[in-house]
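for the recovery benchmark. tokens below, seq after
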């Protein structure tokens, strides 16, 4: 009989015959999307595949236990399992809420309660929770449910401050939270530590040993090697929960995340939140800029990078974005990708035109980013020109009426995360407008790169059942 045993909180071992081990290896080996562009692949140092099952050690991530069991059930193989961790039950959720002192103004929604119940019953889970679904409240409830030393990992310094502020607003003692980022002490005896992954990914296994609960916010980023290494060092952490608003659709990345955190549980969907009036209604206005015939001829053989460079430096295109930002009603977020080539140029065009205009990129200090976020929450006619890397993920600004995609992208995760910036409701906002800027530089039957990316975004809008309309404008 096949025996599945727990090694630690990260790995399980599968004692099985060699032929079964080969079957497992085949089942849990995947080609990495875009691997052919990797330098290691080009140099033939890597075959572009991830192998989740270690043939030599016969080990695999513990979070994939359910996948392993399903595989054996399909094959009708006999096996036994050592239960990795005891689950927790919540008999009276209302008493729990009352006991931890959540303010009366904050009432957990049904799906938030179900998410906590689901996670606690399984001790590990990857929770798919879209923007404005109240993800931080679910994280807080799990933290209070276990009352163990807890490490919460977020991708940016802005989110460190934001998560702490959320905890305090839920009634938690501010002095019980320690924040870790560049220049801050990493070790603390406080029960809750909120850290950027960049600040701690090089720490040893001993650093993580005191933590019994680990929570990864924006968990889709944990497929990166440094983030994965953090989770592989948490050998003594039995309770592990990942949160993300979006997955990229890749089976490889999904299984890696499930291996690190546990099976995926969809908490709710953006459409359900809109239908329940928890989110602002969404209008996606797709502006397809049609470039002149002479430009099409010049750009017909351009590489992707040449096309991006042309678009970033196109005076007419940048002026169009400037005018769009200045004439849009309410507060506006302009998202760009290239700092020097486009971001600063757009900021210089937009500033000094009668509105409060701020610039944010990766070099902006955490305190300044938080100031900009709070300023936009409390004021009107604010324009924030920000890089995707800083403001497309997790940043909470309820008083945001417009989001302008100044840089084209086909990334499902980036687009849905960016759209999420505008979906939060406020007392003066119940509709958000996404301005998706694309470029038609087609020459005869050859479609340019960013136009192809635009077509991919239209597929996403259709799949997500967003209200969108395409407008063609001669540039």
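predicted aa per position
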């Amino acid at each position: 009989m096949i025996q599945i045993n727990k090694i630690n909180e990260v790995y399980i071992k599968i004692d099985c015959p060699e032929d079964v081990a080969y079957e497992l290896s085949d089942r849990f080996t995947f080609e990495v999307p875009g691997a052919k562009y990797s330098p290691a692949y080009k140099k033939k140092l890597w075959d572009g595949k991830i192998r989740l099952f270690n043939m030599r050690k016969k080990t695999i991530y513990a979070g994939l236990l359910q996948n392993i069991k399903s595989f054996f059930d399909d094959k009708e193989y006999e096996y036994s399992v050592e239960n990795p961790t005891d689950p927790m039950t919540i008999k009276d959720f209302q008493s729990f809420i009352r006991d931890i002192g959540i303010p009366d103004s904050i009432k957990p929604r049904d799906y938030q309660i179900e998410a906590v119940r689901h996670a606690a019953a399984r001790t590990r889970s990857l929770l798919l929770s879209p923007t404005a679904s109240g993800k931080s409240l679910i994280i807080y409830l799990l933290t209070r449910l276990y009352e163990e030393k807890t490490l919460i990992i977020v991708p940016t310094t802005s989110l460190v401050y934001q998560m702490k502020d959320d905890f305090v607003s839920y009634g938690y003692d501010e002095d019980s939270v320690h924040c870790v980022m560049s220049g801050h002490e990493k070790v603390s005896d406080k029960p809750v530590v909120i850290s950027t992954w960049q600040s701690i990914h090089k720490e040893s296994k001993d650093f993580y040993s005191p933590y019994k609960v680990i929570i990864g916010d924006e968990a889709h980023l944990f497929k990166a090697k440094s983030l994965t290494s953090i989770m592989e060092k948490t050998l003594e952490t039995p309770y592990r929960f990942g949160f993300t608003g979006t997955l990229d659709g890749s089976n490889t990345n999904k299984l890696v995340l499930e291996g690190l955190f546990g099976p995926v549980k969809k908490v709710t969907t953006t459409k359900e939140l809109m239908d329940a009036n928890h989110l602002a209604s969404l209008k996606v206005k797709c502006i397809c800029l049609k470039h002149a015939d002479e430009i099409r001829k010049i750009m017909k053989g351009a590489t992707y990078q040449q096309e991006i460079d042309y678009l970033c430096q196109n005076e007419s295109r940048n002026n169009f974005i400037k005018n769009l930002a200045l004439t849009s009603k309410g507060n506006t977020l302009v998202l760009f990708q290239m700092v020097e080539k486009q971001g600063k140029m757009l900021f210089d065009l937009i500033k000094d035109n009668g509105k409060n205009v701020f610039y944010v990129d990766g070099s902006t200090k955490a305190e300044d980013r938080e100031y900009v976020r709070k300023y936009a929450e409390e004021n009107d006619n604010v324009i924030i020109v920000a890089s995707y890397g800083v403001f497309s993920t997790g940043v909470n600004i309820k008083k945001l009426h417009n989001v302008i995609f100044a840089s084209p992208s086909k990334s499902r995760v980036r687009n849905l995360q960016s759209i999420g910036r505008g979906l939060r409701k406020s007392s003066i906002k119940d509709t958000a407008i996404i301005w998706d800027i694309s470029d038609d530089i087609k020459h005869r039957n050859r479609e340019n790169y960013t136009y192809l990316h635009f077509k991919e975004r239209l597929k996403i809008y259709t799949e997500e059942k967003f209200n969108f309309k395409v407008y063609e404008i001669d540039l």
